[in-house]
Each structure stands twice: as structure tokens, then as C-alpha cells.
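Here is a typical sample entry:
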Amino acid sequence: MRVRTVSTANLSRRFRSVSAVSRRGFTLVELLVVIAIIGVLVGLLLPAVQAAREAARRMSCGNNLKQISLAVHNYESAYKKLPPAWTNPGQGSGWSMQARILPFLEEAALSDGVDFSRDYGESYMTIDGEQIPTSSFRVAAYQCPSDPRDQPRYGSSGPKYYKLNYATNEGVWFVLDEGTNQVGDGMFVPGRYLGFRDCLDGTSNTLALAEVKGWTPYARDAKHSGTMTMPITTDEVCALAGDFKTETGHTEWIDGRVHQAGVTTTFSPNKKVLCEVSGIEYDIDFTNMREGKSPPAGVRTYAAVTSRSYHQGGVHVSLLDGSVRFITDSVELELWQSMSTRAGHEVIEIP
């Protein structure tokens, strides 16, 4: 039997070799490089994920407009006329077009709480023995998924109103003269039921609805009398003044007045109407006189209520034929305004 002897030196070298292998790992420099690579990959991936999410939200927004447009068509099929933009039951708190089409949006339960013979402020739903304002309920089809502030507007006793992101086309600038009952050139007008036959420009060339932002600042009830020249620049709007509200425009889907449920084409989509109030700059809308608020003689409703969206580069709109388009911010103002008139006899080509 042979016995192999191992020198102490060789044994020591082997232990050192094994020990070196067991201690081998990332150095600090290598670890920092790995972290940097992961950071770069996350930086590249995150915008792609966000873009995919926004694309999905944008598609959902367009589907909402399609659903609302179909509801308008179903309303017309049932009643042989289009709903008015605003109707006054007596006290000025008039109903919106959006309220009238609720049964055709699969919102029959909510529409049961609507009584068009009374002001919307007197409309309540009884749930678990508690009376809740009909105006406080969220209508899913009226909410753009890209709007970051999807929440009710509170009153003194809790939720009172809920916002909307899709508004009726009420023309270019002039909306209503209550003294003469003259209405504007939009497809939906206050106090009057129009029909498809009134759209002389063609249903495929005329706006039905357009996107708006909830919680929009606006000036109202400036009460300028006589014929008002349409502003060309945003500075002209600021000079018109009025009673200023910081964030309540387009927060009441139930209210048919133009600053709540309507839109005009005085300015192109997403045009910033920047006015300074008490040292703070706001992107505002303007209404010379709210509908139904007992205007003095000769005071008419004119409105610059701009179409705005949370989507990059433009706004979704629906045409009266039910089709949905995405109109870019760079659209020519003349074309944009021509799209909002029902009988302007313009020859237009919508991009």
C-alpha cells in the first residue's frame, strides 16, 4: 500500500486557491455598471409603457364619443328631432342635451331621476332612504380616461355635480338672444329642437360634439349689451372681464348652459386663452351672459368656450353623421369654425 505524502506548502497553496474561488464576486465598479444598465433599460422602457397606456386611453376616449353620437342618433330616431343644447323649465337651471340622451346610453336608472318640467337643481335620486342630487352621479360615457381629475364637485352638504369631457357644438361665437329667441349657428342650440334637415352643410361636414376639459376656469356675466364683435386674439377675451370662477367650468354634465355642457369654435383646439386674475394666470373660457339668468335688455349670450383635451396634438370630435375624428391643433381656424356651423354653406374638406 502506497502512502502519498503532501507537503505543507502544496496543501497551503490548495487552500488559498479554494479560498480565492469562494471569495470571487462583483466588484464595486461592476455593480455600478449593472445598476447603470438597468437604469438605462428602465428609462427606455417607461416611455414606451406610458405611450401604450395613452394610446389605449385615447382609443377609449374616441369610443366614448362614438357611444354618445349613437345615443344622439337613437334619440332622433325615437323623437324625430335632435335634443336642444339647453332647455329652461322656468328658473334658469336648464337641462343639457347630455341629460336628455341618458336612456340611450344605458343609463335608464339615472334618467328615472330626471324631471324635465322642473329645474335640474330639484332633481334627486332616493338611495337607501337618502336623497342624492341627480347631478352628482358619474356618467361613465362622459369621462375621458386621460382626465386626471375624475371626481365629483362638492357642495356644502357633499357631492353635488359631476364633470364631463364631451360638449355639444353651439357654433362659433353667438349663442342666444333671449329677448328675440334668436339662436346661434351651431348644431345644438338653446331651447329649440332642430333636426337633421336643419343641417344644410351636411351631417358629414358638421360637428356634433368635441372634447373639453373639466374644471376649466371661466369668466361669466360680463353683460355687454348689443352686438359683440367676435374676439380675434386671446387678449381681447381677457379685456371683456366678468365674474371669474377659478375651476367650475364643465363640471356639471346636467347643466345645459354653454360654459358647462357646450363648446364654441371662437378659437382653435387647445388654444391657450391666458388671462391674469389676481396675479395668477389662467387658461379661461368666457360667457357674456349665462342662459336663463334674466339678462338685461339687449344683453345676449356670446361665448368663447374652447375645445381642449389631454391628448397630445389635438382633440377628438364627432360629426353629426356619427363618425369620430381626431382634429389636430394646427387645423386652420376658418375650417374649424366652418365645421361648427349647420348652415354656413361652406365647401370644406375635413382632414
Notes: Helices lie at 8-22, 28-79, 97-100, 108-111, 234-240, 258-261, 333-339. The chain has a mean pLDDT of 90. Residues 53-339 form one domain. The CA atoms of residues 273 and 283 lie 5 Å apart.
